[in-house]
Amino acid sequence: MFALRTFLGGDGVRRLGVIVNPIAGMGGRVGLKGTDGPAVLARARELGAEPVSGQRAARALAELSAQVLAAPGAMGADACAEAGLPCEVVDIGTAAGAAATRAAARAMLAAGVDLLLFAGGDGTARDVLAEIGTRLPILGIPTGVKMHSAVFAQNPAAAGRVAAAFLEGRAAAQEAEVMDLDEEALRQGRVSARLHGVARVPRERALMQAGKSGAAIPDEAALEALARRIVSEMQTGRLYLLGCGTTMRRIKRALGFDGTLMGVDVALDGRLLAADVTETQLLRLLDQAPATAILGVTGGQGFVLGRGNQQFSPAVLRRLGRENLVIVAGQQKLAALDPACLHVDTGEAALDAELAGYIAIRTAPDRSAMLRIAA
C-alpha cells in the first residue's frame, strides 16, 4: 500500500479519492425506486435484493492506475482490492450511512485528493456535494436506481476512463447540476425533482451522461395517438412489460389503468396483470407466456435501460431477446439528444454490446426514427 505521505506530499502526482455507497442500487431490481432510509433498505433485503455498487465500482477502478485514498471496507477499500488497485484507507470513525459518506468526503478533501470518485446514485451525489461543494472535482460511478444528475459517467467502465483522463491531465473540469427525486413521492406516483447545487466534474462529453430533462410539449398529440395505436396492435395471449415514465403512462392509460409512474407494469389481453413488478416476478411471468417489453427514453440522457428500470435485469433481457424490445419516444425528445444516440447500462458489458446497434424508435402512429444504441 502507498504510505499516507504520498497523498499529502508535494510529489506532483495526482491522487484519487474513492467512496462507495454499499447499498446504492439495491432497490432497483426489486422495484423500490431506491434505498433511501432504513425501512426501505430493510424491505429491499426482505425481497432478496443484493448489493451491486461494490462490483460496479471495481469495474470502474479496473480502468485506472493511480494513487488512491479510499473509504474503509465496503465503502471503497474492498472495491479497490477487487480491482487490484492498491490504496490507503482513510479513517472515518464510527460514522454510518449517509454520515459515513460525508465523513469520507471531508477526509479526502482535507487530504488534498485531486478527484473524488464515488459510486452511488443521486442521494450519494447530494451527500458528497454537501461536504465538497465546488472545492474538489467529483465523478459518479452510476450504481443507484435514479440518476438524474449530470455528475455521472454513462457506465462504470466509462467512469474509470473519465477519471484516468482527468488524472492524466487530458480532461479539464466543468460545472454540472446535482438533482434528486423524492423517493416517497415516486412511490405515490408523483415526480418531485429538486436542484441541490452545482458540482465540478471532468469534461468528457462522449463518456458522461447529461442531466435528465423534461418531456417536450409538442410531442403530446403524437404520443397520445401512438399509445392508442400500440394498444390496438397488442396480441392476445402475449405479455406486455411496460416500463416507467410519462411516455409509458400514456400507454397504460390507453389500456384503462394509471399504472406505476416509476415502475414496471405487466398487461395481458388488454388488462393490468401485475403492477410495479420486481425482477423475480418478471422472470416468473416470462415462464408462462411470450412477451414484449415497451420502453421509453430518458429525456436529455438517452438511456433506454439502466436508469430507473433495473427490473429489466440481464436475466430478463436475455429471456426477452432484442427482437422483443419496443422503444417509444417523442420526436422532440430524440432531436434534443446530444450526441444523437441511445444508451444502455444493464450491468453486464457483454450484454450492452449485444444490444448495441441501430434500432427503430416509434414516435407517432405511422412514424419511426432510427437511432443507434451506443456500445
Computed Rg: 21 Å
Taking the sheet with the most strands, its summary is: 7 strands, mixed
Shape: globular
Fraction of residues in β-strands:
15-25%
- Average pLDDT reading: 88
Strands, count: 16
Number of helices: 14
| Class per helix and strand makeup | alpha/beta
Helix content: 25-40%
Low-confidence stretches: 1-10
Oligomer: single chain
Strand order of the largest sheet: 10-9-8-11-13-15-16
What does this structure look like?
The protein is an alpha/beta fold. The chain is built from 14 helices and 16 strands. The protein has helices at residues 5-8, 38-46, 53-61, 77-83, 98-111, 122-132, 156-167, 183-187, 220-233, 246-254, 279-286, 314-320, 331-335, 349-355, and strands at residues 15-20, 67-70, 88-89, 115-120, 138-142, 173-181, 193-202, 239-242, 265-268, 271-274, 291-295, 303-305, 325-328, 343-344, 357-364, 367-373. Strands 10-9-8-11-13-15-16 form a 7-stranded mixed β-sheet, with helices on both faces. It has a 5-stranded parallel β-sheet with strand order 3-2-1-4-5, with helices on both faces. The longest helix has 14 residues, at 98-111. It is globular.
Note the topology:
Elements: H1 5-8, E1 15-20, H2 38-46, H3 53-61, E2 67-70, H4 77-83, E3 88-89, H5 98-111, E4 115-120, H6 122-132, E5 138-142, H7 156-167, E6 173-181, H8 183-187, E7 193-202, H9 220-233, E8 239-242, H10 246-254, E9 265-268, E10 271-274, H11 279-286, E11 291-295, E12 303-305, H12 314-320, E13 325-328, H13 331-335, E14 343-344, H14 349-355, E15 357-364, E16 367-373
Parallel strand pairs: 1-2, 1-4, 2-3, 4-5, 8-11, 11-13, 12-14, 13-15
Antiparallel strand pairs: 6-7, 8-9, 9-10, 15-16
Helix pairs in contact: 3-4, 3-7, 5-6, 9-10, 11-12
